[in-house]
């Protein structure tokens, strides 16, 4: 559904759902804040409960709403859920547009019935949905905007970039069960060549998961692990020293990890699906390799052979993911959402 974008008659104030960035904040959120804030006539605010509940703004932009309703203890979760109720009521009473970026297609698993009900309520109150790729289904009867996930080239440019090492495979990022790192370690056992190595780096979600990976790695001297949170410099080191990055997620729809690797000039091996096929066409031949079904050694060997054909100075085409363009597109979406609320359409 499309609507005409009104002429910006006054300053647009956007309240984001994430707090003031810290060193561990997802760079996507930081770059989004900066890109939107660079558009003339726009003010961007980061999140705190006092400002969100008492402040005046035109748009509330929510990314992962489950963060609003969860807590490290049952009491903290209950308090935040009460605050969320108050926030949604305030947004309704003040006719404030809610814009939601659809990072994930489904609600998180393992959440309480109360959390699920609150998240569904926020969904029903959402004015406009931002899709990060064309394969995300449009919401029937709702406003939508397709704004591709921006690249990380500028973000990482402040640090030196190491050269690649032939035959080196890397995994990086937070390690959860669904990300399939255990399957990668098993598949790598069958990869031929003592000169080929695998380095998996990132913080596991549980001690049990960490122990399982350590047991798998112990069987192959070519495998190394770095089971900690990666700051930007460690991430760059992990990605840039690789000839190939493998992200064997069992579920993959919007992956900042894929764009991180490509932004650092490294090809990726990922599960075959429509999203990754479209990305492969977008960025150029050789940069996005895909595998079907379960990852195996032949998939890794094939992707390594393809990666070795890329020249050191080759780079993927990420021009469609420029942040200036993304900032302007978000502001256009915000203004459409505000106009819809004021006309009583949302």
Q: How are the elements arranged and paired?
A:
Blueprint: E1 12-16, H1 27-37, E2 42-45, H2 49-54, E3 59-62, H3 66-69, H4 74-93, E4 97-101, H5 113-125, E5 128-131, E6 143-146, H6 153-156, E7 168-172, H7 181-188, E8 197-201, H8 207-217, E9 223-226, H9 232-240, E10 244-246, H10 256-263, E11 268-271, H11 274-283, E12 288-291, H12 297-307, H13 323-342
Parallel strand pairs: 1-2, 1-3, 3-4, 4-5, 5-6, 7-8, 7-10, 8-9, 10-11, 11-12
Give the class from helix and strand content and strand pairing: alpha/beta
* Proportion of residues in extended strands: 5-15%
Question: How is the quaternary structure best described?
Answer: single chain
Shape: globular
Helix percentage range: 25-40%
**Largest sheet, if any?**
6 strands, parallel
Amino- and carboxy-terminal Cα gap = 13 Å
Tally of alpha and pi helices:
13
pLDDT under 50 segments (min length 5)? none
Mean pLDDT: 93
Identify the strand order in the major beta sheet. Answer: 2-1-3-4-5-6
Number of E-type strands = 12
Which series of helices and strands comes N to C?
A: EHEHEHHEHEEHEHEHEHEHEHEHH
**Computed CA radius of gyration, to the nearest angstrom:** 21 Å
């Amino acid at each position: 559904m499309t609507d005409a974008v009104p002429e910006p008659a006054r300053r647009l104030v956007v309240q984001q759902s994430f707090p003031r960035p810290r060193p561990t904040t997802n760079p996507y959120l930081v770059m989004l804040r900066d890109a939107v804030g660079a558009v003339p006539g726009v003010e961007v605010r980061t999140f705190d409960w006092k400002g969100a509940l008492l402040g005046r703004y035109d748009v509330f932009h929510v990314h992962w709403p489950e963060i609003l309703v969860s807590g490290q203890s049952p009491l903290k979760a209950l308090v935040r859920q009460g605050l969320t109720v108050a926030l949604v009521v305030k947004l309704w009473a003040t006719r404030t547009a809610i814009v939601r970026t659809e990072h994930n297609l489904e609600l998180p698993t393992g959440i309480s019935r109360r959390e699920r009900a609150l998240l569904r309520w926020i969904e029903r109150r959402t004015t406009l949905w931002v899709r990060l790729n064309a394969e995300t289904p449009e919401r029937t009867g709702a406003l939508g905007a397709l704004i591709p996930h921006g690249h990380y080239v500028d973000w990482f440019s402040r640090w030196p970039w190491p050269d690649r090492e032939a035959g080196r495979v890397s995994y990086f990022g937070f390690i959860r069960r669904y990300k399939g790192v255990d399957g990668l370690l098993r598949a790598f056992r069958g990869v031929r060549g003592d000169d080929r190595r695998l380095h998996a780096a990132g913080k596991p979600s549980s001690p049990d998961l960490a122990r399982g990976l350590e047991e798998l790695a112990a069987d192959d001297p070519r495998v190394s692990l770095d089971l900690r949170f990666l700051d930007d410099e460690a991430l760059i080191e992990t990605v840039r020293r690789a000839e190939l990055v493998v992200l064997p997620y069992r579920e993959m729809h919007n992956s900042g990890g894929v764009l991180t690797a490509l932004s650092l000039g490294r090809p990726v091996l990922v599960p075959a699906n429509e999203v990754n096929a479209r990305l492969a066409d977008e960025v150029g031949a050789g940069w996005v390799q895909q595998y079907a079904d379960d990852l195996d050694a032949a998939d890794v060997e094939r992707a390594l052979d393809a990666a070795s054909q890329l020249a050191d100075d080759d780079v993927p085409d990420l021009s469609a993911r420029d942040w200036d363009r993304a900032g302007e597109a978000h502001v256009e979406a915000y203004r459409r959402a505000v106009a819809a609320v004021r006309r009583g359409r949302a």
